[in-house]
Write a structure and sequence with these properties.
The protein is α/β, with parallel strands linked by helices. The chain has one domain (4-94, 174-326): Rossmann fold (3-Layer(aba) Sandwich), CATH 3.40.50. Helix content is 30%, strand content 23%. The protein is built from ten helices and twelve strands. It has helices spanning 55-62, 85-94, 112-122, 128-141, 158-170, 188-205, 216-222, 240-245, 250-257, 298-302, and strands at residues 4-16, 28-40, 44-48, 70-75, 78-79, 95-98, 176-180, 208-213, 225-230, 233-239, 307-311, 314-317. An eight-stranded mixed sheet has the order 6-7-8-3-9-10-12-11, with helices on both faces. Helix 3 packs across helix 4, helix 4 crosses helix 5 (158-170) and helix 5 runs parallel beside helix 6. The longest helix has 18 residues, at 188-205. The structure holds iron/sulfur cluster. Iron/sulfur cluster binds at residues 249-250, 287, 289-290, 293, 295-297, 300, 305, 318-320. Iron/sulfur cluster is lined by residues 249-250, 287, 289-290, 293, 295-297, 300, 305, 318-320.
């Protein structure tokens, strides 16, 4: 079994509630609330959940673009959560990000060659000539042409801009790529092209991915394992096929019930969730999902369910699987 490239333990991010500036003791916004997971070398871990569940904050904490409130992040065996920002500069060469919005993430005033070259300059890689050649090679690798180097971002389509973002991430030969909703701003017809490109690059460069998305069907395409987040917590995590075929958490079951199945003979019953996602400033007591859960019991309102492994790396945080309920 491949070694863990990244290990996250009890990671938390509590923000100050800005609206509470008149309040001397504002409650924290619990954006990420005690999550633990690992990513093995060469694998893709998908992280899914509704908007505001903490998945993007998690991705940014792994690069220390946002400072964790508590917890440990271990990358290549080193505890990077306590490194100084100067030490983190070296680590950031090995962890790169691909952003959701290819329109906003590329500087419109710079030519593509400058955009892709920039991370190499920051990390002192190669001389001018070597970098220039690498930019042209990378453009070919991501399915563009080397003559595109002289163009500006506005001269490209959304899918092409995302390819430029991918080339920029690859420029410093990272080990881990955090892809934060990399296809959600693209047309459906372009999404699969970009996903296929990411898969091909993963094989060719032995990359490891954290793939963040709100769309379960996108995550299924690319992930080896999938974690489901709800209100700052990972509520279920399992191998991809196990999660999709045998979802245990009522939230995962509801999310999956709304994913269309391309089989007209299959009748799928959608599980409708009551109400909206509660505020992370004042999350529900006990299980954070109890206010919307179709299977909630009395215990769910009072006791936080433990996130524990049920079998073969399939972990879930739900009282249905407590020993006394014998639901597995
Ligand atoms: Fe639903 Fe209770 Fe399980 Fe939470 S712990 S998901 S409320 S059954």
């Amino acid at each position: 079994m491949a070694e863990s490239l990244l290990e996250v333990n009890h990671l938390k991010k509590y923000f100050r509630d800005k609206k509470g500036f008149l309040n001397k003791n504002p409650k924290p916004v619990k954006a990420v609330d005690d999550i633990s997971f690992f990513i093995k070398e060469g694998e893709t871990l998908g992280l899914v959940g509704e908007s505001g569940c903490g998945k993007s904050t998690t991705g940014r904490m792994l690069m220390r673009l946002i400072e964790p409130t508590e917890g440990h992040i271990q990358f290549q065996g080193k505890n990077i959560s306590e490194m100084s920002q100067a030490e983190m500069r070296t680590v950031r060469k090995d962890i790169q990000m691909i952003f959701q919005d290819p329109y906003a993430s590329l500087n419109p005033r710079h030519r593509v060659e400058r955009i892709i070259e920039e991370p190499m300059i920051v990390h002192n890689i190669g001389d001018k000539e070597t970098r220039k050649k690498k930019v042209r090679d990378l453009l070919e690798v991501v399915g563009l042409n080397s003559f595109h180097a002289r163009r500006y971002p506005h001269q490209f389509s959304g899918g092409q801009r995302q390819r430029i973002g991918i080339a920029r991430a690859l420029a410093v030969e990272p080990k881990l790529i955090i892809a934060d909703e990399p296809v959600s701003a693209l047309d459906v017809s372009i999404q699969s092209q970009v996903l296929n490109l990411l898969e091909d690059l993963q094989k060719e460069y032995h990359l490891t991915f954290l793939f963040i998305a709100h769309d379960l069907s996108v995550v299924r395409h690319i992930s080896d394992r999938v974690g489901v987040m709800y209100l700052g917590k990972i509520v279920e995590l399992a191998d991809r096929d196990e999660l999709y075929e045998n979802p245990k958490h009522p939230y995962t079951q509801a999310l999956l019930s709304s994913v269309p199945i391309p089989d007209p003979t299959y009748e799928q019953e959608e599980i409708e969730l009551k109400g909206d996602v509660p505020s992370p400033i004042d999350p529900p007591t006990g299980c954070p999902f109890h206010t919307r859960c179709p299977q909630a019991m009395d215990v769910c309102k009072k006791v936080v369910p433990e996130f524990k492994e049920e079998r073969n790396g399939h972990s879930v945080a739900c009282h249905l699987y407590d020993d006394q309920h014998m639901a597995i």
